[in-house]
Amino acid sequence: MIQTIDAAAFQRAVIHAYAAINAQKQAINDLNVFPVPDGDTGTNMTLTIGAAAQDMKKKQYDGVGQAANAAASALLRGARGNSGVILSLLFRGFAKAVRDKATMDGADLAMALDFGVAAAYKAVMKPAEGTILTVSRMAAARAAGAARENADLESVLQAAIEEGSAALDHTIDQNPVLKKAGVVDAGGKGFLVILQGMLDELQGKPMPETEEEQSAPADKADFEMMAAEEITFAFDTVYIVRKKSADVDLEPLRRYLNSIGDSLVIGEDDEAFKVHVHTNIPGQALTESQKYGTLELAKIENMRTQADDLAAGKHVQSTDDLAAIEEELERGETARQPVKAAPEKKFGYVAVCAGQGLEDVFRDLGVDGLVGGGQTMNPSTEDILKAVEATPAEIVYILPNNKNIIMAAQQCVPLCEDKKVVILPTKTVPQGVAAMLVADPEAEEEVNTAAMTEAFQKVRTSEITYAARDSDFDGFAIHQGDYLALEEHQLFGTDQDLDALLDRLARSDTHQSAEFISIFYGEDVTEEQGQKAEAIFAAACPNAEVSLLPGGQPVYYYMISAE
């Protein structure tokens, strides 16, 4: 049995835990009980601990305390969704318990788990049973008992996992929604997968293949099926360039790179671009690209050598650290330090939304910073913090516009040092729009906050989406592909006829009593289809002023605001 671990072992355990949950993230996503296609618990927890795994790969620490603190900091900034935030809080408490430790034994681990649970429960206003909180609490309690019996770390961690697994099985009986769906809690499952991944590392078990490794991307060569002589362009070349300006024209570069290689992919945002190309002259590719900005990162791998190594059964050397950075850029992130803007005005505003139309609405209403994300991709705490720090105001309001983003937004309050951050707990985009409509740049902070809060609390939001899977939910027999109508996040009804469902929704008490109805149509809806939906609501709600706006949001065909 393993008695203690040092910093290096802890770092490897975190990396293994990330690989473990990454391999199972879709299965965890599938535990999200609501049939709306936004199950993302597995994704959020994977991205959250992935931030820590990246740090653990890049640095060496002198003690477990240092490593745990670094992991906790990375988790906090990378936290996505409620499950990710709670996971970061569990690690934050964990780190506090071992902050002065060079090594960690079973008793230390038990105390760390207990501290983690305390931190998580303290942060959640109304802790509910049958969640990740329950699973972590029961696991920590068993760990404490095991540590009194046997102080070796492996035994304590094993006992915690066993008790946590029993608690996870019981969540189906603690939460009525889970019971209806016949599944266990997704967050609790993710937490146990992480603990099991750490234990597997300590026991010397092989790291699981990630979902990406299980099915190779189409643009990656299968080296085991290729002979070295079949490789025309030897060097797999990937690099990141910081643009000279946002409007840099990359078309000439694209033509040049196509002339010296193949498999070209260029991804870009306003500040940087990433190039992937197979070429025999990577130096020339880099030199040409530097005409467009500053080279920041580069990865060059010899595919012929890799093919030879694989054929000989040797381990293939790769730049694993850079691969993680590539993934960040592909998600629209960069490794840059956040821009910190000096205050130029009293109030500033940061809003979370997804869809060009919604972004335009918020910009028109005076929002300074926009953070991409929503129900299907929750932004991290760091994403939100960067937008706050780039806002030139003394007081910055954050509008999360989604109940699963509120906790991540709240973590920005202690992290922002030079600005006051105020969280308006908006749960939908229409609530955020309503709040911005009454924002007053000349008012006192308390008056402005009260007015915005009162405005968004008056808004009721309905949404139209589709069923991602068959389900029996709340008395509705739901079939994959059915249209779903939600009212204040509760299932209103289903239908295979979208127009019929829109008409039923328009005749609900919410919309019949409304004075103003705004319909935001999504990226999969044409303007003509949107106008048809507007006509349905106008006919069913003659006493309301009905307006149609292009939202461009994913997943939801329509977001409907009623005031």
Task: Describe this protein's structure.
The protein has 563 residues and is an alpha+beta fold. It has 4 domains: 209 residues, DhaL domain (Serine Threonine Protein Phosphatase 5, Tetratricopeptide repeat, Alpha Horseshoe); 115 residues, Alpha-Beta Plaits (2-Layer Sandwich), CATH 3.30.70; 112 residues, Rossmann fold (3-Layer(aba) Sandwich); 103 residues, Hypothetical Protein Tm841, Chain: A,domain 3. The chain is built from 23 helices and 18 strands. The protein has a 6-stranded mixed sheet, with helices on both faces. Strands 4-5-3-6 form a 4-stranded antiparallel sheet, with helices on both faces. The radius of gyration is 26 Å and the shape is globular. The protein starts with a strand and ends with a strand.
Architecture blueprint of SSEs:
Elements: E1 4-5, H1 7-29, H2 41-58, H3 64-78, H4 81-97, E2 104-105, H5 106-123, H6 132-149, H7 153-174, H8 176-181, H9 186-202, H10 211-214, E3 235-243, H11 251-260, E4 261-268, E5 272-279, H12 282-289, E6 293-302, H13 303-311, H14 320-330, E7 345-353, H15 356-364, E8 369-372, H16 381-389, E9 393-399, H17 406-410, H18 412-415, E10 420-423, H19 429-437, H20 445-457, E11 460-466, E12 471-473, E13 476-478, E14 483-487, E15 490-495, H21 498-506, H22 509-512, E16 516-521, H23 527-540, E17 545-550, E18 558-562
Parallel strand pairs: 7-8, 7-9, 9-10, 16-17
Antiparallel strand pairs: 1-2, 3-5, 3-6, 4-5, 11-14, 11-18, 12-13, 14-15, 16-18
Helix pairs in contact: 1-2, 1-3, 1-9, 2-3, 2-4, 3-4, 4-5, 5-6, 5-7, 6-7, 6-9, 7-9, 19-20, 21-23
